[in-house]
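Below is how a single chain appears once it has passed through the pipeline. First comes the sequence as given, then the structure the pipeline wrote out for it. We keep one example in the README because the format questions we get most often are answered faster by looking than by reading.
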Amino acid sequence: MHDAVASASPWVRRFAPTIPKSGVVLDLACGAGRHSVLLASQGHTVLAADRDISAFGSLKHALIQTQELDLESSVWPLLGKQFSGIVVTNYLYRPFLDELPKMLCEDGVLIYETFADGNAKFGKPSNPDFLLKPGELLALAERSGLKVIAFEDIYLDQPKPAMVQRICAVKGHLKGCIPLQFGG
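Resulting structure:
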């Protein structure tokens, strides 16, 4: 489990403490569960959802429930659900992007990080359907009434060269504080 926490995105690690402890956090398109484990280690109850949860493997934690869902069906499988936080990394499916802010409880936090326009020159993903357009996450926050805590649209060289867009935004008011981090 320590390996899963260590491999969590620095962006998610930085902003996970802002998610309210009450309620459930959604790890959307959870993959192998690195962010689910991070969130559970911080005391959050987590719903880890993906179309195939086999990558989650034998990872077990009392605060994590896994659910196999078709995240790209014609009907949004999480309709009507509410979460204190939503974490999404390395995943983009635009038809349901606007559903995410609607699923946040008051004071809920959205932490989103995925590949952006320009990533094709570094490899996959290269299909524009899977790359965020400039300012796309900012536009999502604006049209949904979320307050932006932090936003970046940048080139990263670690863990591999990539163009990445990421946001941390809150529905309502941020209750917690973001701990200062020094160094890398």
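Strands lie at 24-28, 45-50, 64-68, 83-89, 104-115, 147-156, 162-170.

See the next section for the split statistics.
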